[in-house]
## 1
Amino acid sequence: MDWDDAYANAAYIEGADAYPPRWSEEAAAYRAEMAAEIDVSYGEGARQCFDLIRPEGSLKGLFVFVHGGYWLRFDKSFWSHFARAAVAHGWAVALPSYDLAPNVRIAEITAQVAQAVNRAAEMIEGPIILAGHSAGGHLVARLTCEGVLSEAVSSRITRVVPISPVSDLRPLMKTAMNADLKLDAAECATESPVFGIPREGIDVTVWVGADERPVFLDQARWLSEAWSCDLFVAGGRHHFDVIDVLADPQSDFARMAFR
């Protein structure tokens, strides 16, 4: 198998190049509309910060969305508009950035995102929902595992939705991107959610697009099977538009996550 091709998403999505600039433009417009709190620090590094968007009126809790990009690219500024559904249903939304490979390893990114969730939880009371896309799906799944988050915060998490997650990191050791990720067998064993034990009492739904690359359908299924949790396959969705449901308050995702 050509592992680089297997994990290549953009090459199989029509108009893929147009997605990041559109995400950036829509995100900036939504931040301005909602008067977001920008660059709330959770650590010492310049990228160790999150944006926080609060709803008007009563507050139900905290929703954290963790972005993807193979732990190599993007930051929080591309994704603000994907808070729209959660905010419309009364949830405050934190969108963290984190340091990227090759400057840090994936285990360090996991620790940073845990810090971000802990800090956001200090600011917002109530239950916590986590969702993440692709590499972000991996990260929120890791945060679901025992011992990653503080006990006080972990006990508040009611729902986690890994969207198109990379749940088993071992295949990525066979890709060219591993020159930057620097994955080895030991890190794959500790950082792959399929080998982790999810905390009891958290409702986990793995979400993936029906039109994604076969390896992402496999990765979603592996996590669902390992954790005996629900798997939702979104018809007609590929790796880039599978997250559009987060921007639609009337979507199946919104009705499932924020009810």
## 2
Amino acid sequence: MSEQQPLISPDQLPPSQDAPPLSTDASIQAALGLFETHMRDEGFAINTMKAFASDIRLLGKYLGIGQPIGEIGTNNLNDFLKWLLEERGVPCSPKSYARRVTTLKVFFGWLHGAGVLPNDPSTAVIQRSVKSPLPTIPSEADLEKALAVSQRMREGGQEQKPDARPHLLLTLLLQTGIKKGEAMAIVPNHIDRTEPEQPMLFIRYANPRLRYKERKLYLEPEWLDILDEYLVQYEPPDTLFTCTPRNLEYILRDVGDEAGLDRGLLSFENLRWASTMRDWRANVEQDDIRQKLGLSKITWRETKSKLERLAEKERELNE
């Protein structure tokens, strides 16, 4: 898949051809207004725009919203981050802390790249080692048990009609690592069967601002057999899955329960991690994994760190 993510790391920000109408005397408030316009023009995701703007307003609350941007130094930013962690009195999760560091680097990197600031005070910001907890994901043994259960459901029994949906869902998530919302948005014609030996799933987004998340994902040819059984059984009129998102969660829960797994282990998020770990163990190119997940390069940093730690944990357990 081609790189479509608009969010790039601060050191990759291109210099602006038209510098924003700001001077070093401009306030944080004034700079934020133009920064929001810049993010919108660059196609930043809506949630990212909201989070970055909120982080800059928080910086303004700490330094004073009228603080001239030219008078903000690295020490000010380090003090701000220390305040967030230790003095604000509001919990700052590792994920929020990492995002706020990124916000500072993108914001001040933009001001420097656009020629507003002669130097970037965020370059030397202290990156504290604040690690977010690792997800608890099903092992390959757990997945084998779950797949055996969903296969039995697919085949049916004396008192149970054949039901391909649990096996369709479980194998789809393990092969693609898609999110729940992406699964719910699939329609049958998003599945390209032109080449039966190499079928593909196209992930589509109706919101133009989220088009950068669109991508194509390869499916195993055998999955089409499960799909055909499912289509005959459920005859979906529009989207592939005719039930609610909550019902899909219940399907995974029931499979996990019957497989004897801990409640909650078989979830959309955990299966996304399990699918990604399979690619990681297989030494798939890291950028291919990132694009398969539909992640920006900024978001990939934390994901990659967790994958490295999960792999290290697995190695320790196997020694």
